[in-house]
Design goal:
Layout: H1 2-23, H2 27-47, H3 51-76, H4 84-94, H5 108-127, H6 150-162, H7 167-175, H8 177-197
Helix pairs in contact: 1-2, 2-3, 6-7, 7-8
Length: 204
């Protein structure tokens, strides 16, 4: 019961943080809230028995990404995140003053789009087997007909096919090596883009 309460509290925290990030007017505050959001996601990954994913989420999401956001804000618009001219223009568009509140007005078309995407995603999530279910393909070695599940295949054939005793390493390096290479290319492209934004072409 205690774990269920903790999971519900984390879910509410993550959802609230995501909403605050979307509607906060102060960019620095939004970045800090985003860091808290990613930390909440990392804790959820720990509860789902995925500490490796949680570590990456915390390091990249709450750590590296948040720091890069802050550096970019300081190098472009300053720590306020919004110049006086931009704030005044935004206030005119919103029909109020710049001090009307700390949150942006609701964008109804965007909210409708998010709702349209959330409905099928929620249906898919609710249709999945419960975490830890004995017959779930992620933890069961065979289906009901005796055929190996992906989990069972990796457990039984990883050492013979890949030569690695660690199934996680085999999946990342061998079975989905091209996907991992693509992720490295994306990370490299992001790093180069950040250096360009910060006007540090001398490092390239």
């Amino acid at each position: 019961m205690m774990w269920l309460g903790l999971e519900l509290a984390l879910i509410l925290f993550v959802v609230a943080a995501a909403v605050l990030v979307a509607f906060a007017r102060d960019i620095v505050g939004a970045i800090v809230t985003f860091a808290a959001f990613t930390l909440g996601i990392a804790v959820i990954w720990v509860l789902l028995a995925a500490p490796d994913v949680a570590l990456i989420e915390a390091a990249v999401g709450a750590g590296v990404t948040s720091v890069l956001f802050l550096i970019t804000v300081m190098k472009t618009t300053g720590m306020s995140g919004e110049s006086e001219e931009t704030a005044a223009r935004t206030a005119e568009t919103d029909g109020g003053s710049a001090a009307d509140g700390a949150f942006r007005p609701i964008n109804v078309p965007a909210l409708m789009m998010v709702g349209a995407l959330a409905v099928p995603m929620g249906y898919v999530i609710l249709s999945l087997d419960p975490v830890g279910a004995e017959n779930a393909p992620a933890v069961a070695e065979t289906y009901a007909d005796g055929e190996l599940t992906p989990y069972g295949h990796y457990i039984e054939n990883t050492l013979e096919e890949a030569g690695f005793p660690n199934a996680v390493v085999s999946v990342l390096v061998v079975y989905r090596g091209l996907d991992t290479l693509g992720e490295l290319i994306v990370a490299f492209a992001a790093a180069v883009s950040i250096l360009v934004v910060l006007e540090r072409e001398d490092i390239l």
